[in-house]
Automatic annotation (TrEMBL):
<feature type="domain" description="OmpR/PhoB-type">
    <location>
        <begin position="6"/>
        <end position="109"/>
    </location>
</feature>
<feature type="transmembrane region" description="Helical">
    <location>
        <begin position="159"/>
        <end position="182"/>
    </location>
</feature>
<dbReference type="InterPro" id="IPR016032">
    <property type="entry name" value="Sig_transdc_resp-reg_C-effctor"/>
</dbReference>
<keyword id="KW-0472">Membrane</keyword>
<dbReference type="InterPro" id="IPR036388">
    <property type="entry name" value="WH-like_DNA-bd_sf"/>
</dbReference>
<dbReference type="GO" id="GO:0003677">
    <property type="term" value="F:DNA binding"/>
</dbReference>
<keyword id="KW-0812">Transmembrane</keyword>
<dbReference type="Pfam" id="PF00486">
    <property type="entry name" value="Trans_reg_C"/>
</dbReference>
<dbReference type="InterPro" id="IPR001867">
    <property type="entry name" value="OmpR/PhoB-type_DNA-bd"/>
</dbReference>
<feature type="DNA-binding region" description="OmpR/PhoB-type">
    <location>
        <begin position="6"/>
        <end position="109"/>
    </location>
</feature>
<dbReference type="GO" id="GO:0000160">
    <property type="term" value="P:phosphorelay signal transduction system"/>
</dbReference>
<protein>
    <submittedName>
        <fullName>Putative transcriptional regulatory protein</fullName>
    </submittedName>
</protein>
<keyword id="KW-1133">Transmembrane helix</keyword>
<keyword id="KW-0238">DNA-binding</keyword>
<dbReference type="GO" id="GO:0006355">
    <property type="term" value="P:regulation of DNA-templated transcription"/>
</dbReference>
Amino acid sequence: MENIADQTYIVENVVEFSPQEHTLYSKVNGNKVTLLASASECFLCLLENHGELVTKKELIHIGWEQYNLHVSDSTFNQNIFTLRKAFKDCGLNHEIIRTIPRKGLMVSKTININLLIIKNELVDYMPVCKDSKEVDHTSPTKSQKYSKFIYRITAKLQLNIFIIILIITCASGIVNGIYFTLPTSYLSNYRTILEGDNCHVKIDILRSALIDYKKFISSYNLHCKNSEYIYFSTYQYVPRISVFRCNHEFREHHRNDCVSWYFLDKKI
């Protein structure tokens, strides 16, 4: 194929997977889930090896090591878990990614995978298969190689930008005495769940519950005092916690003295 502009994998004729955008889109319920770049890279590798076992070592190299990143077993497993959950949110409740104990992962041959290729305003719709007699993929054209090169460069750039943003966010957590004002709309979903004992705790009610906060403080030694205000929020799909501890309650056009934390490993 020449002049390939985009590729989309169709899983079980229900979910569209875009490796370029790192997204899953359900044609059944309309849900669109954005994946972590590492999880997207791992799933693309499984699709490129459809019906074959891919070792955990290979997936770790694809998702992290080729970018000089280290990943723990728990983080790797969490990425696979969120990937499976994303498929359920898109309406596929049966097993798409199969675990082979102590060996690796695979997308079984019984899972229907099709590849949608868009080129020059024309769409070719064909099943993903190996050693096909009708379509010869063994000799990629220069355009295919160039397209794959551009995709890899784009994926690396997106991952690097994500890492830079993550570092900046974490660094802000160790800076004490920063004065800033947040817009009222940012905190419109926060509600007070605890008051008294020199402490005011507010949580994002769209993301978190009181039990989340109680489990959090049982795992981390982070308590407020002197009538401080705690703003607490968890995140959907990813193990992240955001905490602001401030001397005063947030009000529009008023400065506040706060310390922020961004926890990467959620223990709740």
